[in-house]
Each structure stands twice: as C-alpha cells, then as structure tokens.
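Per reviewer request, we include the raw input and output of the structure prediction for the construct analysed in the revised manuscript.
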Amino acid sequence: QVQLVESGGGLVQAGGSLRVSCAASGRPFMNYVMAWFRQAPGKEREFVASITWSGDKTYNTDSVKGRFTISRDNAKNTVYLQMNSLKREDTAAYHCAAARTRPYYEDASDYTEEKMYASWGQGTQVTVSS
C-alpha cells in the first residue's frame, strides 16, 4: 500500500481560500486514483473529489463544484485540493485516499466509494469561521 500524509489545513474565514496537500510514498504513485474525503464532527465521512492517475479526469461532489479543485503532480507524488469560497459547512477533517486503478473504471466519477480506497492519510483539519 501507499503511505499518505496530509498537510496545509488550518483556520480560515468564510469566503476565503486554502490549499491542502497529500504526499504519497511507498508505491508507484501513478498506479493510483487519488481522492479527498472529509468528515465533520458527528457526521459520516463523505467523498469530496477524485482524480485519475494521469490527472486528465476529475470529479467533484455537487456541494463543492465550482469551488474546489483537485490536482496532482506525479513528479512530486503529491495531490492537492484547492478550496475557494469556503463556507462554514466545509469545516471537517480532510483525508486523502489512494485506490488502485481498476480495469474498465476509466473515469474519476467511478471512484467515489470509500470501499475502493485501501490507503488513507491521518487527515488535516480545516475550520471555516464566520
């Protein structure tokens, strides 16, 4: 499995921006679809965004479309989540996850379920204040 370490979380005012990063090690990074999930206090973990191994296909959950952008730099073994126009409801621990690319699952939208991801980071806290 690949090891994942997130960074870049913090406190930001509503309407502001933040970028979180996830550094991968241990396995060839390009074998993996990468994703961000988040978990707010008292709520279940939810899918946020995913990106295919090449970076040419991405998918966002509806609540963050137009505000969040997932990207990856395979040379640096790192995936990013740029978050703009943050809202209080975006407050959560953000976790990155890695899933082995599966045959016939070619789109980022095919990788939204937690059970597809075998590797998880410890999370980075994002808190949005009003």
